[in-house]
Each structure stands twice: as structure tokens, then as C-alpha cells.
Batch of 2 targets.
Target 1
Amino acid sequence: MQAAESTVDQSEIAKFEAMAAEWWDPNGKFKPLHMLNPCRLDYITKQISVDFKRDLDADKPFEGLRLLDIGCGGGLLSEPMARLGASVVGADAAERNIPVARVHAEQSGLDIDYRHTTAEALVEEAEKFDVVLNMEVVEHVADPLAYLTACQRLLKPGGLHICSTINRNPKSFAAAIVGAEYVMRWLPKGTHEWQKFITPDELFELLKKAGLDPVDRKGFVFNPITWSWKISERDTSVNYVTASVKPL
Amino acid sequence: MKQVDIVISGGGVAGLTAAAAFGAEGFDVLCVDPAPPVTERNVEGADLRTTAFLQPARDFLEQANLWPRLQDYATDLAVMRIVDAGGPRIAARMTKDFRSSDISDQPFGWNLPNWLLRREMTARLAELPNVDFRPGVAVADVVTRETQAIVMLSDGDQIRARLVIGADGRNSAVRQAIGVGVKTRRYGQKALAFAVTHSVRHENVSTEIHRSGGPFTLVPLPDYEGRPSSAVVWMEEGAEAKRLFDLAVPEFEEAMTERSCYVNGPLKLASQKTIWPIISQIADRFYGERTALVAEAAHVVPPIGAQGLNMSLADISVLLDLAKQKPDALGSTEMLQKYHRSRYPEIQLRVTGVDMLNRASMLKAQPLKDLRAFGLNALHSVTPVRKSLMKLGLGVRG
């Protein structure tokens, strides 16, 4: 890896710009994330606003909050969080995502600290956050409990952990793998391994074992008629999200 | 972070009753309402409607320890008189009495003015150390989590509760915050409410006079300034109701006396008038996560047969029973689904029933009005049918 960004050659930058354009194209390769994003953002902003008593109508409601976006990808969540005033660290274990996210943040005029690193490595560096966003990651890791424990250790006492993933049942298999990967071709085949999916009850248990206090779960439900996602109190059968608090 | 068992949004008769009832069982309660309650009769904003508590509602007020404060002000309703004045002239052409003594040794119900209910109920809440009543404060937003509800108040405070009770009326802010829809039927009618005095004693008879546009109902009140007095609810087609509302007092008195078919003699206006639109409405469901909807937040019926508030108190009674059975499960999905399942079918039935009564009373066409009188006669003449109807109306029988 190059010593400094200034030494990155121009063709590399052009390549990252092209990849960023791809990440941020609402009808491109990451269309499912773009479609889900308003729903995810709605949930995340509401949860943060109640726990930190922030008024979402204010100019920069999340000012003064330090937020970690794990698995930040192209920055689809990091950027709106930075716009709302949070001081954002975006982390991704996939090295190629980092310069892509950086290029786009620069184009958007946002100051976001993107790092090629892992939750475990950040714990080693003694980093602490008010909020950890952990969206659509836990179903891809080898040891979910170790991973969630690392997330817990990254939180300040009273901090908020938001974690979304996919349920494990025949319906989620049909929707996430057959539907999204094979039929709709939204995601590359092999993106998900169904056996690694976690049910909401299992996730609640894991979160408790990791030292967190789970307080909420909601479903993200896709409506094929309106072609949009909505938050559901009751239907957590496929995509769902949880909120947990680190005890004081 | 403030934490209570229950936040009640709404300080009307239903909300205050809920606060007293849950408070009496030892739950920590915060009750808020954007408007301070008006607890005097002759001031701007006083709620001049009256509430007739039917037998089961009275039992519930007894249980909530509210009845001892109220009984001295209550007027018995011993007879419900239904008058059909649907002939070509405005005159009673058929009068049928339903007597509570046919089915019970108790009156049908007890009538009280709403402003007085608020005065006595807020006084009762002040005695309960575990109940905090904050008038002048509204619910700004509700965010619910699986484990609790977080209520944002208009004074900037944030309260966490295991259960939120939406008792905040037909345009319930709580219902909107949790995204529950409603089905609404509009009749184009408005209701006028006011108090009157009259020369003829009411003898504890409540009289409902049907002609067209909706019923004109006189409900007994205690004497006012030395004269017999009644509360009136007068329903009319919207434009006509507005015209009546704007009449000068002598013309208004003349109009209402004629409409009353002189059953209590000439009527004198004895209060300000209030006017509001008549709708019937039912919420798509009576609960959301950590939230129960009660009273007009869940259902609205036209003011006929004293059904509205009595349905509301039954909501609160069911909710309280569920809370007492499993206090630890207060606000859980299981509890709230039980509440919904126990109330929804019954409410649906009553909303439909009152809707039919209202539409029968609004009839303009003469043959239909004649049919209505014939139907009333038929229902009344068959004793078992009459008694069943009375019990059904009272809610003493499902």
C-alpha cells in the first residue's frame, strides 16, 4: 500500500470515482441498499434522537455524537449521519471500499474518517463511540458473539448499538437468496449463506451475552406492489433491525 | 430518565377516569392534556355536555373510588321516553316509555355535567401520590420500542413508560404517532349542546324526540336556580344546526320549544351553547406496540342512547382487568392483543347499531318516518323484546 494518498496515481483515482458512481447509483448494482436506505435511516435517526434527546428538526441534531459505521461500504449511511452533524468513523474490512467512500465524501463536501479496519482492531486502539451502526454485517462474520462483544466494547456506557440482519426461516431463504440473488439479480450469487442467518431471538441472546441490553426489534418489510420498504412492528420474518443499549 | 408504568394522553372524562382507576391499583401514572380542564359551569370553554353513566359504568366508577365524589351531584334516569314526532305537524304522535323498573331495581343511569366530572376527578387525582396530572402539556411524539414507549412531551420532558394509553379524542395524537388508521362516516349533521330550564318537572324521565335531521334529547339535571332543568343534545343537518346556533336567544328558545313538542313546557336557555360535527368512526385496531387506544381515540358514535362514554369506560375496565391479572406484562403485545380482541367486535356492533339509529332518526321522507314509528311501536309492544333491548342498551348483557 502507498505511503500517502498524494502518491496514488491518477488512473487509480479515476477507477475509484467510477466505483463510487456505481455505489451511489440508485439503479445500479446496489439498488437494494438504496431502496432500503430511507427505511433504515428513518429507524436509525429515530432511535438516536430518543436516546440522546435530539430534535430531528434541528439543523445538525447529531452534533457532538461520535458514531461508528461498521461495514460502511460506499458510505451510504456514513454520509447522511455526517450531514446530521455526527462525527463519523466509517470502517470496512474490504480495502477497496475505503478510497471509493473517501472520493464520494470529498465530492459531497463531507469530512468522514474512513478506515480499512475491523471492529476488533478498533477495540485494540481503545476507540469509543456514542453510537455503533452495525447494518447487514453480522450474517457475514465467522464468530458473531466475538464480533458483537467487540461492538459492545466500542461503545461508551449508555451508548446505542443498532444491528440489522436477516432472519433464518424458509421465507427469508426464498426472499433473500432465491429472490434477491437469483431472480432479481439484485445481489451477486453467493452473497449470503442461509445457514449463517440469525433469528431475532438468537440475536437478542447473543446481544445479551455480548454485554448489551436489547430494547427493540422491528421488521423491514418489502412491498412488491408499491416497490418499497416499510418498518413493521410485527413482521420480522425476513429483514429486521434491533436496538440495544450498553448499560451505564 | 423518568420512568412510569403508564402515560395517559388526554384529560377528558375517559383519561381522568383511567388515571384514577390505574392509580387506585397502585400503578405509577402520568396523565397529560394540552388544555387545562375547565371546572366551572359558566365560563368560556366549559364542556356543557352531560354524561349519563349506565349501570356497568357506575360500578366501574365505584371500583375506581370516584363514585363517592360524584353521587351527590347525579340525577337518576328512571324512564327513557321515545317520542316520534314524524307526522306532518311538529307534534308527538307516538310516545313509548322504557322503564328501568321493568328490568332492575336501579335506574338506567345517572346523569352528570362534564365540567363537574372534571372538577371532581382532578380533585381525586390530587389525592393519589402515584398519579401525576399535568394539564397544559401535550404529547409531542411517541416512539415505541419492544420493551417500552418513549413519550416526548410539549414541555421538553421525555418519559419512558411500559404502556401509553391514548385517550386523546377523535383526532388522537397518539393514534397518529403509532400509525393506526380510522374508518370515518360523516353524516353532515351537527349537534348542539346546552342546558335549559322548564316549568314542567322532568320526573327523572329522559326524552328522545325523533322527527328529521336527528334526535332532540332532554336528559334530567338537578334544579338550576330554583327551576327544573335538563341537558339538551339537539342534532340537525349541518347548515340548519349552524343557523339555530346563531339565532338570538328569544328566537332560539322558540325554535327549541317547538322542536321539543312542549314535552316539558316552554324551554329557557340556561347556559352557553356548544356545537360539534357528528361522525361515527372506528380505529383499524385498538392497539399498537406498547400502546392502547381507548374512548374516542378508538371509536366515536353519534350522541344517542348514552353509548359513547359507557363504551369508553368498558374499554378502560377491560384494560385494567388485564393489567391486574398480569402486572408484569403491562403493555406487552400479548396483553394488548387480548384487549383488542375483547373490545373490537363489541365496539363494531355498537358503532353499527348507533349508526342505524341515527340514520333512522335523520329520515326526511314521510313513508319512512311512518315506518320508523311502526318499528318503534313493534319493538315496544313485545315485552321480551323491549326488555332485551333495554339490557343491550345498558351493556349489562353482551
Target 2
Amino acid sequence: MPEPMTPVPTPQTQPFWDGAARDKLMLQRSIQSGRYFFYPRGFVPGHVNETYEWVEASGHGRLASYIINRRPLPGYENESPIIALVELDEGPRMMTNIVDVEPIPENLRIGARVAVEFRRRGEVNLPFFKLVGES
Amino acid sequence: MTSMHGGDIVVVGAAETELGALPDVSVLELHGRAGVAAVRDAGLDLGDVDGVATAGPLAMEVSHYLGVTPRWLDGTMAGGGSFMMLVRHAAAAIAAGAATTVLITHGESGRSRVGVPRWVPNPNSLGGQFEQPFGSFAPYSSFTVPARAFLHERGMGPRDLAEVVVAQREWAIPNPKASRRRPTTVEDVLAAEMIADPFTKDMCCVVTDGGGALVLTTQERARDLASVDRLVHVLGSGESAEAPLVSQMEELGSFHAFRRASAEAFATAGLEHDDIDHLMCYDAFAHLPLYMLEDLGFVGRGESGKFIAEGHTRPGGQLPMNTNGGGLSYTHTGMYGMFAIQEAVRQLRGEATVQVPDVKVSFVQGVGMYFATAGSLILSNRV
């Protein structure tokens, strides 16, 4: 049976996946500008004179866009079909699945608040997101 | 002094192979057959070609397969819109004297998969870590994901996607080479099988085998060729790129690389939107012409859906668009860009199956690797 893909970290992305293993969503931030960036790199993209730090993100954001995939590839039949883009409160955007909701557009308002929930797949914890009440 | 833009560089040969299901033809043979046909169309022989550019196979695989000895090669791989960039690069190379006659080939066994390397998942890549684990692998589950943000921001919806399909089908119905030719309606398109909500099957491109090729040289050299009466001039071009991951595009409701590439094409051609008679917009999915009409500046923000629904891009409309039927109805081998350029060349030569009257200037917009790369061309049948 085909399995869904499990990420294999590179040395540059390892801190992100190490954080995920502890249920922490880790992002990089420029120390000079305060700007967050994602995906992980070993320097600040676009700025040779800046340096970065790893910081724990809030794990909160909003639903920015999504499809509901009616043709899952082999291995994904039991995964959430909601392939979504989430904009984190810190700025960066991530691909994810929205979980624990019936996959129909009526339930998935653009702009809805979401929160990260890590779930185990193979050797890593993957960042999925759930809808949360407005607060 | 030969210039890259302004018309000194010309397309002197253009040809497509058969399209559809070609289970007896390998990828390299598709490149070869397209290349032979384009060189023949130019009134040249393969010995006259000294530059080869392609995307997919390596440029030297194609040059050797064809029996061409190159002194200039370009294998810029920017996805399905690579060919817009390759025309631009060839124009620069010819203007600089690095090549005299450049052959650009495309061939893909997208449907029959003959001679195609097997795709190997790479969970160590950026996509393999940050997108594919969530089931976003195939074009229909990646390229489509930003579309709902685009529609939502503008108060648009699935009907606007369906209108794109209906408008382009009108061009495909009379075209015997087109894959989808059945008349359709917005209701039919919306009722088709749901693939990646909001995208139904008809809002996704066809999947075919086929090839195409172009020959470029200088206007000066073209004077001696049999194709001299059918020259298509490169007036302007542009290219740009954004993120290799669709999740990382700068703004979900606008692809800034379209804006940058098209602005450079207009600037280098010295033309304005009103000068454009014909538009080709690479349409792997129905949202792309909506993005392009707005990002290229042919309509204002939020006006793309209405513009198409009102019929302005259909036969007889003020801005005929995707006049072969596009990737949605004509053909889509995997890297459709070559076919968008071929249709622009045919329209400018007056040789299109569904010919638009009096086309003088055509704008061709490419996209590649989902929302990663953009290439723009402005072509004309006069200088």
C-alpha cells in the first residue's frame, strides 16, 4: 500500500522539524528587520547584512485559500482532502491540511481563524491546522 | 546593428506534430519530428541550424538526435512557459552574434508516457517537506490552490471559472485538431466531475501527446528564404520568476512575475495594450486567463470575469484570446507554452484554423512550474 509522504529534513530545515517534534511551530526571523521568513534557509533571503534567529510562532493564523481534492493520490485516501494555505499571524504562509471538519465549502470560510495541531507521520510531526472559534 | 527587440529577429519556421494520443512516438522523436517540420517550413535544412534550445530533454540530446552541430545551446527549464523564455534568449543570442539560426523544440508524451523518465518522489526537497506531505502533488492539487483567494477577494466564484471554459470552447468547436470540441454551457461545466473543488474536470486542461518547434533568425537572413512572405517579428519580450513552491507566491490573488514580465515586454516593444489584436494566455487551468488579463493590465482588478462573460475574448470579440481553444480545449502535453506561441504565429501569418481578421500584433503570456515563472512575448507580422 502506498503511504503518504513523510518529510526528510535537510541540515537547513532540521530546526523546523526538531521544533515540530516538540509540538512547536518554529520560524526564522531577521534580527535586524524583525521580518519572519519561511521556508528555512541558512541566511536571510535578499539581505546579505542581516542575521536571523529561530523563534517559536504562535501557531495561529487564518485560512487564506484551499481546494477540496476529490482525486487523492494513492496513500492519501484517508487524509483530509482540504489542501489549504494558511497565513500565520507572524506573516509567512504555509501549505497544510485543515483537519477535523467536514470537507465542504460551507464550513471553510476564507479568513477563518485556524490553529496548528501537530500529528505524527512516520518519524516526524506534521503541522496540520484546525478551525478555531473567533476570539 | 541587429537588435534583440523591435523586429530584427524573426520566426521563419513554425510547425506542430500530430496531437492527441501518439503511443508509437517517443519524447525525443516528438522533438525530432517537430524540429524537422519547422526547419522544412522555414525553407532551410538542418545544416543551416547552429543554435538549439529546448526544455525537458537536454539541449544536446535534441541537437544530436536531429543531426545538428550547435555553436549555441540553451536548456533553460522554467516549466511549461519555458518556450517564451527560449524565444527571448534566442533573440538575444542571434542579436549578439552567438548564433545565426536557432531551432527551439518541444515534445512531450504527456498522455502515452513513451520514453518518459519515471517521476521519483523526493521527500528531501522543499516541496517534499512542505507541500507534498499534504497531498499537493499533481498540477490539479497544486496550481489550483491559490484560486479561491483570487476569486474571494474580487467577489467572484466558480461561474467565472466556467465562463473561461465556455468562451474558449467556442474557438475549439470549429478546430479539427482540438481535443474538446463539444459545445458547452456554464451549467455543463459546473456540473462536470469535481476534481479539486472549485475546479471541475472541464476547468482542467486536456492531457495529450505532441510536439512543436520554431526557427528564428535575422530579418536580414530571412530575405533569401522561401518563408520571407510569412515572417513573424519579435517586437518585445520579458521574463521573471517568483517562488518554486505555490504556497510561497508573494500574493495569492496576483502573480507578480506576470506583471514584471509583461511590463518588460510592453516596454521593449514600445507598445501599449490598445496595440494588441490577439492574446494567448497559457491556460493549464481556468483561473490562469483571469489572473493574466488582470496582471497583464488588459482589464482592471476584479474585471476579468465580467470581461470574459461579456464575450470580449470570444470569436468576434474585441480581444480574441486563446484562439486555438487553449490548454483547456485544444491540447496540453504538459508544457503547453510552445502551442500558445504556435497559434500566435499562425494568426499573424493568416494561417490559423479559426483566423481572426487583421491580426497585426499578438501578445503571448506563459507561466511555468505552477506560479513560479513567467515569460511574455510580443510578436507581429510587421515592423
